[in-house]
Amino acid sequence: MGHDFEVTGSRTVYDGAILTLRVDDVVMPGGRVAEREVVEHFGAVAILARDEDGRIAMVRQYRHPVGRRLLELPAGLLDQDGEEPLEAARRELAEEADLAADTWHVLVDLALSPGFTDEALRLYLAEDLHHLEAAERVDEEAELEVEWIALDDAVRMVLGGEIVNATSVAGILAAAAAERAGVELRGVDAPWPDEPTALRDRRRARENRS
Description:
By secondary structure, this protein is α+β, with helices and mostly antiparallel strands. The protein contains four helices and ten strands. The chain has a four-stranded mixed beta sheet with strand order 7-4-9-8, with helices on both faces. It has a three-stranded antiparallel beta sheet with strand order 1-2-3. Strands 6-5-10 form a three-stranded antiparallel beta sheet. It is globular and about 55 Å long.
């Protein structure tokens, strides 16, 4: 049996709008206690929406931390209390791409940077699309542009460094690999053991105290 990494203490260093930073005291093999910084995150969903011609819907939007506009798959946080991941995916697809889909599958699950954060993302494949009325958008999303790109062209853009968002890279390459290998994708009720809950539980507990 492997070592049990027991947490003997924990403290919150920062509590912000979309993340919390805590420091855990963790017992290492051999008995030493080490500090491990953990960024708690709401987690997220993303959608690779593919039309009948094999094109995928991508959005180009400004990302302040990198200081430029990136071409990405529609995505959003799991920050609404009680909202299931599939519900969030449907909402984000409508809000960012003005689309709805009749057919959904789980494409891939991602632990985005498990060395320091519990942030995880479930990426869906959405098909049998239909268009919705344009949603109202504010802030960075006010200038959001939807672009339709053939999957093979998107793969070339990933490999050429034009698409660099990690979620989009994973989704595009996963979709291309699944199509070529004929892999049957998981249903939307597939277990998601890494779905992050710490930050949502923390916020819910704080609201209950107020």
